[in-house]
Design goal:
Blueprint (H helix, E strand, L loop, with lengths): L3 H26 L21 H19 L11 E2 L2 E2 L1 H11 L16 E3 L9 E5 L6 E9 L6 E6 L5 E6 L3 H4 L2 E6 L2
Antiparallel strand pairs: 1-2, 3-8, 4-5, 4-8, 5-6, 6-7
Helix pairs in contact: 1-2
Protein name: C40 family peptidase
Keywords: Hydrolase, Protease, Thiol protease
Family: Belongs to the peptidase C40 family.
Length: about 190
């Protein structure tokens, strides 16, 4: 079950970081009058705040991970898209939807979705795409929680013997041999 207060806190935190970034950019466009003895600063010497977008990106990625982890051990349910049960794409869809990010509903639709990134540059919140264990087509996806190239960990709704939302490692042979690509949607 989702902790309602945690979800609200994450959303408020993300909104606050974005708001601070916007205010920082606005403030940099309108310099204040100097205090007594302070040199006047021209608009040309003021640089926009760049770290806010990096901080906002990091906060969003961390929030996606934390929100996803609130569903650990939720059962795998074919076609499931709720906290009562998920399939792999239903889980990714549900987590990203919570943050207003539109992603496909089925794993097969990730064939041409998002920006493919080298696995060595994968970040938390990126999506890993895998072949189905039973056929030569895209059939599984998960969200990166600990980026370490081909040893990255990811959270996903597993239809294997565990039949639940869990964290796995890309270095596990069953995932290494089925790995297709990493996709960035943030």
């Amino acid at each position: 079950m989702v902790n309602f207060n945690k979800t609200i806190f994450l959303k408020i935190s993300i909104a606050a970081v974005f708001l601070l970034g916007i205010l920082g950019v606005i403030a940099s466009r309108f310099p204040t009058k100097p205090y007594k003895g302070q040199a006047e600063i021209s608009v040309e010497t003021i640089e926009p705040v760049k770290s806010d977008s990096v901080e906002a990106d990091t906060l969003l990625r961390d929030s996606l991970e934390q929100f996803g982890k609130t569903f650990l051990d939720v059962p795998y349910v074919y076609g499931g898209t709720s906290s009562k049960g998920f399939d792999c794409s239903g889980f990714v869809y549900y987590v990203y939807q919570e943050f207003g990010i539109k992603v496909p509903r089925t794993s097969a639709q990730f064939a041409d979705f998002g920006k493919e990134v080298p696995i060595e540059t994968v970040k938390k919140g990126d999506i890993l795409v895998f072949l189905s264990p039973t056929r030569n087509a895209i059939g599984h996806i998960g969200i990166v929680t600990d980026p370490k190239g081909m040893e990255s960990e990811f959270i996903h709704a597993s239809s294997s013997k565990e039949m639940k939302v869990m964290i796995s490692s890309l270095k596990q042979p069953s995932y290494t041999r089925r790995f297709i690509k990493a996709v960035r949607v943030i």
